[in-house]
Amino acid sequence: MNRLLLFLLTTGIFFVLSSWGFYGHKSINRLAIYTLPGEMMGFYKQHADYLSEHAVDPDKRRYSVEEEAGRHYLDADYYEHAVPLDTIPHFWKDAVAKYSEDTLKAYGIGPWHLEKMMWRLQDAFSKKDQNAILKISAEIGHYAADLCVPLHSTMNYNGQLTNQKGIHGFWESRLPELYGAGYDFYVGKAVYIEKINTTIWEVFEESCAARDSVLGMEKALSLSFPEEKKYAFEEKGNGLVKVYSAEYSKAYHDMLSGMVERRMRRATHFVGSLWYTAWVNAGSPVLDGEAVPMPVAGDSVLMELIRRDQDHERELLK
Are 92 and 122 spatial neighbours (Cβ–Cβ below 8 Å)? Predict the structure, then answer.
């Protein structure tokens, strides 16, 4: 194990840098495939393993590409303390004119970067460049899912300002790994997004609106929970890792009343809808891969495929 990774694991920073966590990001990309129309699903299903495995590529680049980190978040509370975010320009050129590019990059460019990636995906569809379609689709899945995480909207992203260090990985990695198998990931069909910029900011504002609850509930729980029962050690890889205990995790998950599941479902549908929108905007080109019937709610075959793919991603974590 290299020294950087060892440091990240032992300090708990690893989960912060991995956003939804490997399980979350890979699952969201894989499950988003089932929201697509039949004309797209055949191609995407054929390359499901690629889309899943490469869902975490943007996180891997954070160690080597300086400008990568800011593409995953926006510290909205640097500019505004509550939604709606009506003083932050939603278009990049307007935001640069108001704040400067250096300031924007210092506090995150997540929503603006996702919109740029959508133009790239539309172009790849127009050119029928399958390698580019897959690469950009996988990365759009990552950036879009990150914007669905409340702690990607605040300067207090890991509770470091409120004595809650570790909450980032707790909310978006530990809880989905423990409870994701029980989540309902039938989220319906992808929808065409008429105004991409507007929808990106709407999804991000939902995350902003939830961040105080994410922090406040864990703070209240921590103050009332026996300290000696808060943490545990579990085997991961070749060693023991300090994690939030199952008991503490359940208490926090219960307090959140389904928030993690709702945001993960939101991310899954959002990703599928972004892929679909780029495809439609490119003229709905014919993709390789056998077209499949559009699934409907209650389809037992579909639900079995979703469950199997969830189990596959969880197995890879062991």
Answer: no
CA-CA distance, 183 to 179, in Å (whole number)?
7
User: How many whole angstroms separate alpha carbon 287 and alpha carbon 46?
Assistant: 11
Beta strands in the chain (DSSP E): 231-236, 239-244
274's CB contacts (< 8 A; 6+ apart) are 114, 118, 121, 140, 144, 193, 196
Query: Count H helices, E strands: the chain?
Result: 16, 2
**DSSP reduced 3-state for 189:** coil
Give the chain's domains with CATH numbers: 3-210+263-316 (1.10.575)
Torsion, Cα 283 299 148 26, to 10 degrees, reads: -90
pLDDT of 90-110, one tens digit each?
999 999 999 999 999 999 999
Beta bridge partners of residue 231, listed in sequence order: 244
